[in-house]
């Protein structure tokens, strides 16, 4: 289709979209922002700075655990070294504070906004209800995803065992042909091969479910974090007030760094392929900067105080809160702190893990002062 034909349709679509997000707007949200602080040119410059700062902070946060795992080698990747035990505990605290302090609070603010007065959204605790449903759905997805990955790993292990058995049989037949008169010597050698293979298969079966679990945890965790990152990016991008943007640049940079660190640690535990690891890290790093860029492009017609925008953001924040609270409590904190590995660890490491957990939660919660 020619551009001069497409352009009118695209223009009409943008006008309809603008009307939908600004329809039935109210003045409550804008009443607290003084016109003396509205400067579109200065706000745009700060948004460019925010994109660069948040991109660097998020990339650095998610890269540190991944680079650390590769630097220390495969033993550290399993969480056996003290450094990675403490890092994972710190990351769990960050994720828990993100869900409870940041996302849940933002969702409740959206649903209790004065623009939604005389609406069912203010008369019912939708934030907690949606978070609850999101947690239950995450439980189902967690279970089904783990079953799926474990089934794939069992199939791969069975195929590898069949191939190995076939190769050993062919090698034994070839050896029989070369040493036709040495059957007594050949028998124990073949039995020894089979016994060694049995041990190898048992180790794979034992290690498989743990890795499958970590794969599911890392993917669900990224889903919860990214959905929130889009919202905070859009919120900053549509703002035309330098007074609002300035404190957010530093706060969101630290916010993304801590979240990236937590996500990177979980990705490193999953031991994914290099390409999958790179894509997950890149997707997280660019999400908030992309949201800022999209918000800046929509700033001329997007009204964040319209009832529809408030409801959409409230629902997404509630879902993200439910996902991350579940992930933090069940897959990160309970799995590590109530497991056999932690109980059999030295008392010094146990105390350090609890300190790291509290530090991560407090550090992330304190950012709520500026965000």
UniProtKB/TrEMBL annotation:
GO terms for cellular component: plasma membrane. It is found in: Cell membrane; Membrane. Keywords: Cell membrane, Ion transport, Membrane, Transmembrane, Transmembrane helix, Transport. GO terms for molecular function: zinc ion transmembrane transporter activity. It is a multi-pass membrane protein. Residues 180-194 have a biased composition (Basic and acidic residues). The chain crosses the membrane at residues 48-71, 83-104, 124-144, 278-299, 319-339, 351-370. Residues 180-209 are annotated as: Disordered. One of its GO terms (biological process) is zinc ion transmembrane transport. Its main location: membrane. It holds the Pfam family Zip. Belongs to the ZIP transporter (TC 2.A.5) family. This is Uncharacterized protein.
